[in-house]
Design a protein that fits this description.
Blueprint: H1 7-25, H2 28-33, H3 35-45, H4 48-67, H5 72-102, H6 105-111, H7 121-130, H8 140-158, H9 162-176, H10 184-201, H11 211-232, H12 238-265, H13 268-279, H14 281-288, H15 294-301, H16 308-330, H17 336-343
Helix pairs in contact: 1-3, 1-4, 1-12, 1-13, 1-14, 1-16, 4-8, 4-10, 5-8, 5-17, 8-10, 9-10, 9-12, 11-12, 14-16, 15-16
Length: 346
């Protein structure tokens, strides 16, 4: 039996996916030539993944009653099928496609010197294990989501008030533990626990914010961002680093609150369009990279020198439409196995 979808959640996911796609569309070669593109990229990357992780944490929260009756092993199998099977299968598919592409001299010439030039299988395999796949780097989110979901499930079995404990741990890691583990996925889990656990604890759609309060939050966020700029130019010390992390924590939380509030206020065709994107967000996120996101920009702008605006616009449109079509095709009954392998049955 399917649970009723939460519409503001789908709309917010749609907003998040547009930000993800736009961030990938202003790919490296475009950012290197455009200060505006670099500014857009830095602005989006400041908060878009914390937003998606907050929404994923909230989605876990509203499904948590279902998990109370599931024993650990079936839960692990279910989540491995949902997240890790697509992570491995799509990652392998992308790797093989670039091995083939690099076997064609004319294409290899275009890819030479980029992140899509041929890499050894051993390097790709280690990247997959570590959560740092060079061809499909965006898949780190799927891997991280799997681990955060498992950590949350196990915590719920052994810790009373696990939501609050995870949030406290996430805040502590974010503020005080500026560490990078030897494996990339470990660092990502530690640094992003705060945003997933924020969703476990708070439903920002319930906040009743009038225009004055929204304007106030915008002003606070602007002041904090200016403070962050001052801290960046300050002498490096442990206290400055903690203050910078605190500013980032509060600012990103405010941006998440404002985004959720926007998602609850959007109506009409924009609401329907964003909700549609949000309801297909898993497939769109999975399939838009690397071909339709950064790939289009690298080829059309980096090699053929087409105008930036045209390239980014085409990249965004194709990153939404083509994965959506792929999801619909995979939903055909005869392709059930491929849907399970590439989308985890979603």
């Amino acid at each position: 039996m399917h649970e009723k979808r939460v519409q503001w959640l789908d709309v917010a996911r749609g907003i998040g996916m547009i930000l993800v796609i736009l961030g990938h569309s202003v790919t490296t070669v475009i950012r290197n030539d455009s200060a505006v593109a670099m500014g857009i990229f830095n602005g989006i990357y400041y908060f878009h993944m914390p937003l998606l992780l907050y929404l994923s944490g909230f989605a876990y929260r509203i499904s948590s009653n279902r998990y109370e009756t599931i024993t650990p092993l079936p839960f692990l199998r279910k989540k491995a099928a949902t997240y890790m099977a697509p992570y491995v299968c799509y990652g392998l598919l992308v790797y093989l496609s670039f091995v083939f592409a690099n076997s064609i001299p004319s294409v290899a010439k275009i890819l030479s010197g980029t992140e899509y030039e041929l890499i050894p299988f051993s390097e790709w395999f280690y990247g997959m294990l570590a959560g740092a796949n060079l061809y499909s780097i965006h898949l780190w989110y799927i891997y991280t989501l799997f681990l955060l979901t498992v950590i949350t499930f196990w915590s719920s079995r052994f810790i009373k008030n696990y939501q609050r404990i995870l949030l406290i741990a996430g805040i502590a890691f974010f503020l005080f533990f500026n560490i990078r583990l030897g494996i990339a996925i470990g660092t990502r889990v530690i640094k992003n626990l705060i945003w997933f656990s924020l969703g476990l604890n708070f439903n920002f759609s319930r906040l009743k914010l009038n225009v004055a309060r929204v304007a106030g939050l915008f002003c606070i966020a602007a002041i904090l961002l200016f403070s962050r700029h001052l801290l960046n130019s300050s002498a490096k010390s442990a206290m400055v680093l903690i203050l910078k992390n605190l500013v980032n924590c509060i600012t990103i939380t405010i941006i998440i609150i404002l985004t959720v509030q926007i998602a609850t206020k959007i109506t009409g065709r924009w609401k329907d369009a964003l909700a549609s994107i949000g309801s297909n967000s898993y497939g769109i996120y999975m399939f838009h990279q690397p071909y339709f996101g950064s790939g289009i920009g690298m080829v059309l702008y980096g090699y053929f020198k087409l105008p930036v605006i045209f390239v980014v616009f085409l990249s965004v449109i194709m990153s939404v439409t083509v994965p959506t079509i792929i999801v619909k095709i995979l939903s055909m009954p005869k392709l059930k196995l491929f849907k399970q392998l590439l989308l985890g049955g979603k």
